[in-house]
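Notes on consecutive records. When two proteins share a document, each keeps its own sequence and its own token line. Never mix them. Below: protein one.
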Amino acid sequence: MKNYVAVVMLLLGICLSPGQELLALQTTPSQETTPEYQENIQDLDTDEVPESILEPEHLDEHGHAPGWLVIPFVLLLLMIATGPLFYEHFWHHHYPKVAVGLAFIVVCYYLFVLHNVHHPVHAMAEYIQFIALLASLYIASGGILIEIDKKSTPLANVALLVIGALVSNLIGTTGASMLLIRPFIRLNKNNIKAYHIIFFIFMVSNVGGSLTPIGDPPLFLGFLKGVPFFWTLEANWPAWVLALALLSTAFYFIDRKFGKTEDELALEEEVTYTNKFRMVGAKNFLWLLIVILSVFLDPNVLDWVPAIHYDGQKFSFLREIIMLSVAFLSYKFANQEAIKGNEFNFEPIREVAFIFIGIFGTMMPALELVGNFAKSPEGAALITHNTLYWGTGLLSGFLDNAPTYLNFLAAAMASQGADINSVTMVQDFALNRYEDSAFELMAISIAAVFFGAMTYIGNGPNFMVKSIAEQNGIKMPSFFGYILRFSIPLLLPILIITWLIFFAFV
């Protein structure tokens, strides 16, 4: 019970503490400290405190967002949830204007009222990185046609989902989702239902990518900060196995109960299947490989990579140029049979691009409040591997899980006198050289990835998979319908079991 109370206090504190100063939590060396935090630092032995905390390289001289500025973000979430349900015609035609307009309001407040350029520039850079990766993977995978001439059974579906979960660790959850969602839909073409797509999002688009830094953006950011490459495999595989086993079992019995009717089964028995596997456009795997390799071209890690220098930060541009070039070239030279067979078009990536302009633009105040409380003395006092699991997880479902991961990792490290901007300290934190630090990092990592499946916006591939499914005539649940009908009754119990087994009693 104490853990539940701590989580509630942590989340309430985040929501109710807009007036506190923020220790900026960016993927850059810049940090800010509150007067109270500075007083606490002065009381510590300076040998135990990182120099970057005692003397931050960059102090934001401007104000921070007031609490009410989260209203555009909340409004955008509500419109994403209710638009397709209650005012579909308006939403379908005007969602780009709504998303861009709400983001514009928040960005203008930062620029002209708070005179804070740092946050909008950083959000823009993150968005460009995000959309370049998603667009290149979406377009390159669209030129690969996979045909499986096999009878659709619950066991065959489970096998494809588990294969997708494994593949997501090699080409990322986005790459695996875009590569396999169409074959999965075709395999079940005679009786495809919403729960097929939901479990695909659970297993392939999220939970599956927990074993390598390539798998999911939060883990990759941790790797860039100094978490050893194979740490995620060593630390996360037991929870990965448990969650996938539970999800596979749940899907198997649901598919048996709600799958094909007796008439559909009788008709399917008359069809002869060759059980053959056919692939068209395999050359596009080379484009996917280029995208994955380019991910590592980060100027903050490799000094020789050219970068845009601004406000003491290094922003990548070579990586994004490569990715966008892949997007163009892979489509231009794609196998036309594969393009037509996949019924490929740009609407899903267009929808994601506009929706996430709104999300990245409006979520800045929300992320600021998260960091505000998590880094305050009050928030630090509540930090345990249990509160980190639930705090990171619940917020990852509604905020972008990558910056949420960084926020909570920075808070956990700071509570033990460590600095997220020190590669050595991050490595030590991962190797449990601070008290319970490996458990805390494991809690943050698993929660950021697993809870990303709680909503359509928790992780980039979720919304894209939904859009592709709807283009194939599959009626998907609304934003709230997804949460109430699937996330809470199916995913949440698995997240609770994962917590009970790996964290609650440690």
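Protein two starts on the next line and is unrelated to protein one.
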Amino acid sequence: MEKKEPNLPLLIRDWVERHRGEMVDMLSELIRFDTVNRVVTGTEKECQQALYRLLKELGMEAELYIPEETAGFHDHPAYYPGKDYSDRPNVSAVWRGTGGGKSLLFSGHIDTAAVAPGWSSSPFDPIVTDNKLYGLGAYDMKGGLVAAVMAVKCLMELGIKQRGDVLIESVIDEEFGGANGTVAGRARGIAADAVIIPEPTNLALYPATRGGALWRVTFRGTTGLSFSGEVTRNPANDAARFIVFLEQYERERAREAGPAPWYADCKEPLPIIVTRLEAGDLSSPLCDVGPVECHVDIWVECYPGVDEEGLREELLAGYERFCGRSYGDDLARPEFRRMIRFLPGSSVTPDFPLLRLLVEEIEAATGQKAEVTGAPFACDAFVFNEYSASPALILGPSGGNAHAPGEFVDLDSMAALIEIYAGAILRWCEPATALPRNN
């Protein structure tokens, strides 16, 4: 009987369907670990150890390493001080190719956002219902990380060997503008010809990410009661005026197109979010005079190409125009203090070859036209795109309620993502062995 050429997409899809239970079990195991980012510290260690064992059992060369013990970590230009990494390991693993092919790195973070109020059950007890898996980190981003591991396992078990190396890393401290876990990997010399970051994208492909700044904006004044004609200035009034400006300015920015090609027709406005207000003596049972300081914490996003100073000056100039007065003309000048590192936006060039390849794999796996656009969020992709020779794209599963109660990942999208990742590995890293045949 004449042998037929293998239909690899069908072989991969069949493998994924037969291993959906294992996919759910693997993700559930990772969710059961509390890996909430505590801003300065974290408890990722036990989950990282479990992932390390899983990758070793899979047959990958794996290692655990502490960022603080990595040579060049503190000297890296993207390093940001003020965090404790003494017992928070990264995981790195490689599936060696036979040589001569391009390498591909899947870089994910294991830490999660804080537990938001409103969960109806424990966020660390995964629940599957209506083809959705609920749990903290399911969507952002343990689901995408599991899809990468399963894609490697799929190709291994199908007997396919590639020429280029396939790498998987799981880093700590990405939430709250961390990025130092990703910095540590670059300081360690972990590199590839291309990077896929499995952040949640709803199977859209993001060749660019926004930037963002979290500032504490302070207004100062004088307090007391003007029984003798004293002049007082309530900084809460200045802060209120500034907040009204921010609301209007967000609307104004939404009417402007972003930079081409990835944000020229962006559907999502650049958010300016007031995250916290603080004024007055909160320890006093009553306050009968105005505060001397009022603090407004704000998260402001920007497009690639905008730096922190430029973003701050944009806000200061806009506030002057809004008020119709200058800062020397009885207009209180806001004071800006950085709360976390500035996250610059970043992008890859439109002709980066992995882009077209992933578009084709998305369309083959989903049967729908691939959406390619700029990410509506900031993340640690800038560490690759601005500080390394490894261009990074973002592609992850569908789901909902990231950073909110009831976070979930869609399991069908995870299955499709495994197909996409496996196909990308095959084509980017190039098969090195005879492929399995259908008889």
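For the record: The longest strand covers residues 211-220.
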